[in-house]
Amino acid sequence: MNRRHFIKSSLLVAMTSTLPRVVLAATPSAGFDYELIVAPADVNIVSGGSTPALCFNGGYPAPVIRAKQHQPVRIRVINKLNEPTTIHWHGMRIPIEMDGVPFLSQPPIMPDETFDYEFTPPDAGSFWYHPHMNSVEQLGKGLVGALIVDEAEKPDFDEDLVLCMKNWHIKDDGSFTALTTP
Ligand SMILES: [Cu+2]
Fold it and tell me: 88 CA to middle of ligand 1, Å?
């Protein structure tokens, strides 16, 4: 393989004793690059029992979203939680209307509602996405994902690996403990 060949692959490494299953992005609706279904799902983080998590597309880790610098990306978010949510694209310099801040940049996405995000990343780099409603619980229970923006100019490296680390507040039986500590 040519050294300059840009391998568009990613590797998810989970820092847990039992590897949870990797879930690929759902087949997006026509006109969209990604579709994120936000819903409760039981995941296996520890061997002692399953964890009643909140997930993107039914599992953890969440799908890695790959966008390209200076090219628009369209992401449809479908809320299947029993509470409102939004998605914030952490660290990205994008228009406020797409920034996912409830009541400020958009109304909350209510249960069974859909919201379409579209933005053009001005910067390449490693970012992450997460809800901006009831954040301690929604993030703490699993709603976090990686968002990678590839450079507009092809960079000179062989592989691009995505490492996701998350601190889960769970007991040996997989149930949640307090999601925050002093
Ligand atoms: Cu954030």
Answer: 6
Residue ranges of domains in the chain: 1-182
pLDDT in tens, 90-131: 999 999 999 999 999 999 999 999 999 999 999 999 999 999
For residues 70 and 99, what is the distance between their CA atoms, to the nearest angstrom? 17
Structure tokens at 142: 């699993």
Q: Which residues pair with 30 in a beta bridge?
A: none
**Which CATH superfamily hosts domain 1-182?**
Cupredoxins -  blue copper proteins (2.60.40.420)
Ligand 1 centre distance from Cα of residue 130 (Å): 6
What does the block give as tokens for 135?
């954040």
Closest Cα to residue 146, out of 52, 47, 22?
Answer: 22
Distance 131 CA to ligand 1 centre (A): 8
